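Write out this protein's structure.
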Amino acid sequence: MITTSDFKNGKNIKVNGSPCQIVWFQHHKPGKGGAVMRVKLRNYETGAITERTFKSGEKFEEVSVVRKKKQFLYSVSNDYVFMDMETYEQINVTKDRIGDAIKFLKPDSEAEALYVDDRLLAVELPQNITLKVTSTIPGVRGDTVSNLVKPATLETGAEVQVPLFIKEGDTVKINSHTGEYVERVSK
């Protein structure tokens, strides 16, 4: 059991029977009354981020989350087939276990499967993914220094906003958690 004084970003606890990860926390001492801990929690089962307030000293069960490397092989209707990198065992994962990052998933890409009590909860892609731009409108000459963006379609079919200097065929790095352009990857 851990208390609110043991909270750290990334710590895994059980709240109302659901495994959650602490994304952000803040100790708050109001003018009157006891101290409280404001916390943002990411529920592993639903993926939802909620904000909660706990009384100082409240106790929680710590959850052990095991991460295993997987490789995406192919998709069949609503199922996505991953292979365990150690045992070569194949598992089917539903679309909702992957979340919005699914639009950046391409064959042979690596991911991490999150397990709690030997139960698969989610599949997370690496923070940054390198993908090729398949189509975009040409940039206007002279607009290479501005902060203007244009839509671009990536090899997975996802559409993201990229700077005007990006051309078709360029390889770009995308943040899989936010869906935002990070940088152009040199050839």
